[in-house]
Specification:
The chain is of the alpha+beta class. Helices cover 51% and strands 16% of the residues. A hairpin with a 2-residue loop joins strand 5 and strand 6.
Length: 280
């Protein structure tokens, strides 16, 4: 490709990333008008090319329209962009990548400009929005909105029996956590700081449990490796102290349990070409 195509590549990369001309201009050290000129047929000075490529985390070759055919190059570029992003902004960046992937899965075309935040402003955050793409190759589920954001992608599972049912007693699990005392204790402990040890007295004081109930609830949480028991010697006697290990799986459980209770009905994207059963 000729050098004149650089401007078109810059415009395409900028739209793909959902960034404004001003952001690129500030990073490179030029005016927004200069970026606009490039995108309309102009050519940036050659000494600016490394800085432009760095901004988009691509090779200079990519600015000339040479597509990346090596997955390793693409992976490296994504990883580089993420690692160069401040830790407090990384999940926001990655979630926007997920948003782009969801839109590509739905339409098989490069998505239009716009981040998740732009979309939420557009819908006014009046309700929780969802997106889901279901094919014979896998499925996605995405929560978009002010209440809850999440992204799940599940490639087609070759052996659902081994994945879900071997050596797993779901009925006992659901029975255990349908116990209000167990559920309330699990929610309460997930609200505490992770490194705080506790004794049964914590549950007695905060959940109005009696000693027998506290012991029973703790035994269930120990069973699922959410609580670990430690014996310590204090004041010439051995006391039992517990440490709680919070689990993101419990949060995911709440997310999808809520979806089962309150069936989602507001979708930004919803595509189903799936003919296979989910469980084989």
């Amino acid at each position: 490709m000729s050098i004149e195509t650089i401007g078109r590549q810059i415009a395409a990369l900028r739209k793909e990333r959902g960034v404004k001309q001003e952001e690129l201009a500030n990073y490179v050290g030029v005016s927004a008008q200069a970026v606009s000129k490039w995108e309309n047929g102009g050519i940036p000075d050659t000494y600016l090319l490394p800085k432009i490529a760095e901004f988009f985390s691509v090779s200079i070759d990519s600015l000339f329209g040479r597509s990346i055919t090596d997955y390793g190059d693409l992976q490296s570029s994504l990883c580089k962009k993420i690692t160069e992003t401040a830790p407090e902004q990384r999940f926001k960046l990655i979630f926007n990548y997920c948003w782009d992937m969801e839109r590509v899965c739905f339409s098989d075309s490069i998505p239009k400009d716009g981040s998740v935040e732009d979309y939420e402003k557009e819908i006014g955050q009046k309700e929780q929005m969802y997106s889901s793409i279901m094919t014979d190759f896998g499925f996605t589920r995405m929560g978009i909105g002010n209440r809850l954001q999440y992204f799940l992608l599940v490639p087609e599972i070759a052996d659902t029996q081994a994945a879900f049912f071997e050596n797993i007693d779901y009925l006992t699990f659901f029975k255990d956590f349908s116990d209000k005392d167990v559920f309330d204790a699990c929610v309460f402990l997930h609200k505490r700081e992770n490194d705080k040890a506790f004794t049964e007295k914590l549950l007695l004081n905060n959940l109005n449990f009696n000693a027998d109930k506290a012991a029973r609830v703790i035994s269930v949480l120990v069973k699922y490796n959410l609580v670990f028991e430690t014996k310590i010697e204090m004041d010439d006697e051995v006391k039992t102290v517990y440490n709680f290990k919070p689990s993101p799986s419990f949060i995911a459980f709440l997310i999808f349990a809520r979806e089962m209770v309150e069936t989602p009905n507001a979708f930004s994207y919803y595509g189903s070409s799936r003919n296979k059963p989910y469980l084989k």
